[in-house]
Request: fold
Amino acid sequence: MNDHFQSIEEIAKESISVLYKLKPCPELDFQYTKKEYPGDLTLILFSLSRKLKKPVEKIGENIGNYVQNQLEGLIQFSIIKGFLNFIFKDSYYIHLLQKMLNTNFYHIKFPSKKIMVEYSSPNTNKPLHLGHVRNSLIGSSIARILKMVGHKIIKVQIINDRGIHICKSMIAWKKFGKEETPDSIKMKGDHFVGKYYSLFDKIYREEIKNKKEEISILNEARELLKKWECGDPITRDIWKKMNKWVYSGFEETYRKLEISFDEIEYESNVYEIGKKIIKKGLEKGIFFQKKDGSIWIDLIQEGFDQKLLLRSDQTSVYMTQDIGTAVERFKKYNIDQLIYIVGKEQDYHFQILFSILKHLGYIWVNKLFHLSYEMVYLPSGKMKSREGNVIDADSLILEMYSLARKNFLKKYSKSKEEGEQEKSAEIIGLGALKYYFLKIDPRKKIIFHPEKSIDFKGKTGTYIQYTYSRIRSLEQKFFDLCSLLNSCWSNIKFDIYEKNMIKILQKYPLILKKSAITLNPSLIANYIYEVSKTFNLLYQNKKLIDPFNVIHSNICMNIIHVTGNVLKSGMNLLGIKMLDRM
Reply:
């Protein structure tokens, strides 16, 4: 047997390729063997039988023999009515445990690619909100997962620092700000600018309500945008000043969330590139110009519609800069893949963007991928800025810290120093927030309940952190009471709780691979919860550390150690820190 760890699932897949020359191997349907049948792991053969057009009994016998030979007799198998049941010998459980103690168990490497992951990408007219939190956590976790399997990752955000939405905040501050600053009123910079964006919206709605023929404040914002694009120095100075306030606020929020980027891009640096590409496309006949001077592309034959690319006054739209940004990224970084983490409401936008780039003849368009994630909802419904029920990220983080103090620290951490308690509250609160968001498939909606995210009994980050601290406590107890033996592997018999623990732990590489392929952190989040739950069953039903049975305590110690490593590794991929003591 070679030193590289291969699970039964992987060897079974390999057997399909070797025995039946079928590539790629179809998805195999494994499940734990039902209690009424002998076995530990079951491969369901019916769909494979239909694919190969061969009887289930023959397929099962061939795969079973292949796996048994590869594992040198450490397993047995039986076939019952289309179910191939693998029966693990105790020696196979020892083999699994020894493999998991080797650091190679965690080193899963794909053929390395240079992958750019874009996430967060806010506008500079208001603070980061709950939606940005989900976006950033998904993006950061996917970047960690892809790096873990061997890819070179470039984490990037593009800040939407120009356009009509930015000019709305600017015109409101210019007209009504009276030169006040974030420092003068002791307000965080992004919240300060957001205040003026809200003021603009309030005035704009009043003008509509009063049925004014000219919506003056919107027209003033449009004029400001023209001045900005013409390089008017006064307008540019206001823009730089207000954006600087926002960037300072963003940096503070990202620091709290432990979100980082390798590159930060600004729309203001690339929108001109997009405009040049559009004008060249017009010359080539890819686009067309309307009488008012605006430039469009006709995608009706592709099932879309006509899409505006440059306005009649030649100012750009979102699509313009997205085209320029994509072109510049492939030119500058020579990437193998570009993943956009952007909400589902932008699905149509990205379909159009990819189609336009294809029309422009860029051969790398097939390297673009839009990971579309669902919205975050409150128990009261969808967040809406106009209804004032948007939760900003800073308030959410503070609430999570407060809940951690209230629900956990006073009750469980009296022995900790005050400074250590505060740090623990931050780790627990932030861990609860991140886990709550990442345990749900990005493609599914989230209804966020802060109170439910911090709980020792539910599927929460806090439960997993507590399990981990229990493991570290058990390790300390072992070294206090027992000695470490180099040779303790002979004649070991495992009970059902120990077997279940080893079985679930050995799935970690498979879960990691699947998570990387599907760009889905929730697979890891839910897996490490199941690991925690299985461990706590073991803990409740077994005496794990016994100074009168040092050999068995050493075996349990190895199981405990691997469990702790898997939990820490998995939570790290979600961006969640662990505590040795809770």
Summary: The chain has a mean pLDDT of 91.
